[in-house]
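Problem 3 from the worked examples.
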Amino acid sequence: MKLTKYSTSFLCGLLSLTSFAEEFSSKPTTDTDKFITWLESGESRLQLGNFTSVGRVQDDDRLIFGRVDGDKTVGYSSTYIEGNYLTPQVSGLQFGIGAYAHAKTWDLQDTYGEKYPDSQDAYFTDAFIRYNFTEDLFIQGGRFNVRNIAQRFDPQYGQGLYLHYNNEKFSIDLGAVDKLAYYFNDYVVDYTSNDDKDLWGYEDDVDSVIYFAELNFGVCDKVKMNPYAYYQDQYVGWYGLDTQIVFHKTATYEYGTKVFTYYMDALEDSTTDDEGRGSFNYSINPFYHRKKWKFDIGYSEFGDNSKNNRPAWGYRYFTNVLYHDGGVGDIEIIDYNPLYGTKGTDIYFGRVGYHEEKWTLGFTAGLYTPEDNDTYHNIWEFQFGGSYIFNEHLNVGGRLVNLTADERGGVVDQDANYLEAWLAYIF
């Protein structure tokens, strides 16, 4: 199955926007004031921000941000602006459009060029048409943010079709995408440069379409479930269930656990046993939240297929899922850990967080112990960070990160430290 080019459909539909305004009002479309009022009743968002990251490693052989060449300190700073707009409904139809642009603030060792490899600095991120059957049900086609829809995807955008239904008892999301793109505050890859075969890590053909289905519902007041399925032919099938159980909850505190399980079905033609076999992965995360304090711990274990335990388009959500603080910038376990998803790796991790109305602080730690690795016995991750909300428009945040490695014989100085900081102004 090959999906059509929805961006073309969007441009054609945009030309008919005037006729929509005519239906909205009994006055002629030459009534500019009415047309502008109609446009202003749509949904819009505009954000200006900056992301800065600086890191230092102990040895030239320890890669951070992709490489180290000469000086062991690398870093970059990017200033970006992003916005999106969704028209009001007319006969159930809506148009959505979004754009992203970035500019180099500064960098060291040409790190910026590695994180933003395209020569282009401005992109159309969203371009879609939506039809609303009812208040609870709509379908849309084009390009749009898939991370807000399907939680297993990286923070990225997709080109495809998407059906959403939501009521008081449950929600369901169904869709298919055939192109992916990243427009994030620390990394950019456009649709046109993110569909090569080497993206999946195989020489054989991989089907371009990824199908997904997400269901969210409450079994009762204390139990919530999220079964899901993702499928890309000749690559991988990802089938799982997320469960949250609240054992006890009062106005002052609550405690319970989250359980995440999934099975990876290897669909590619493989020349090795590990790449061709299925893989079961799970994570158990007890939590205790009391007033402004949050205490979370976790244990995760990965199965037999290192290559597919985290698909190329999949998020590292086992160790991220605890750390959504709201505002701008999640505090999460390190992105650059090479052991995440490797065969037989155990992860022990936890966090202590303190939350005020306008600011949060958190300390996290993680220990990765691989079953068999040529470089590491284990890796420790530590970080301290937080965020501050000045007002409804301005957010700032940052984190200090330390990676300490227990290396095997003949491999030394794999430790690293870095700082990340972000700022965002929402108009």
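Problem 4, a separate protein:
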Amino acid sequence: MTQSLTHYVHTFQEAPLAETFSCLLVVKSQDQERRRARMLKHADKQPFGRVEQRPIEDGLLVSCSLGPRGLTIIDTKTFPEPRHIVRFHTGFLLTLVDRVVQLSPKGVVEREYRDPHFAFLHTIALHPDGERMLVVSSGYDAILELSLKTGKRTWEWFAWDNGFNPSADGVYLASTPERARHYEREGHKALYVDPAHYGPLGIVTAKRTAHPNAARYNPYTPGTLLVAMAHKGEIYELRLPEGDKHLRCALHPMAHGLIPHKGGWLVTDTTRGVAILFGNGFAERERIILTGLPKDPALGEREWVQQVLPLSSHRYLCLDANRGLHVIDTEQRTRATLLPDPSWCIQDALVLGGE
């Protein structure tokens, strides 16, 4: 087996960016310090996440530039817990806590997409035909596909109906009353999760059975989807009607990303401070390790690298909750660190181009 190539970012030479490029930062909330303190307090708790409901946080879509002088803010717009952004026509699609919004190039909301099972939304992926989008509804352990034209659901997948049961407290969750009765006939304690009885966050995080946080159409095997299950750090291939396939790749809880890159998949192992490039069969090819970079000593070994996003075949933007933003070059072995507002909990970014 070919040995994986490992990049230790702390050994890279610190160098300011030579160029300036425009960027959109998706800030899911403005309470990063409180989140960090909570992470330290509950770091060893399994499963990850809250056990009670909380208020919806105000997040931001930040238009900025990254360059030799650091991070320069151009404009900010407030949204309820945005998490992921993709290009769409001349503008963008952005997930908010319980809806997807279509934005103009200047960030003005032009259309909203809603669904009864939209809650705690994470990623969006555009279908190759340009007519559908795949939305991860973490609040209901669901992957939903919608028509971009009509806004209607064209396909659905609930983790509860596909082997991800019971919850941590032994309850079998069900997306329909019929499914709940089926579980009860099998002798299980069951709960029909009626979205009418829940808010924009859906089920509390700790009681979800899978907590999907990324789903992508598979460009290497048309007709399949890949889904990251955050509770256990697992990745699944959904191939209907043949069934689901567990792709074992040694991740940890709360992994993020699942981005097609260099003929494979770039996944951020968030709680280990590592990004891994897998081949399309999920054999490891490269590893980017951020753990050696300086941070607050009070954090100890705790890591939270939200995302590592490819800028090119060898340049990456790393969203590190404990250290800031890093632009790294694995060929030149350089890194530039930029410090955003310390209250920002940055979930995603979209680089728009150089200036």
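Solution to problem 4. The two ends are 43 Å apart (CA to CA). The helical segments are 32-41, 177-185.
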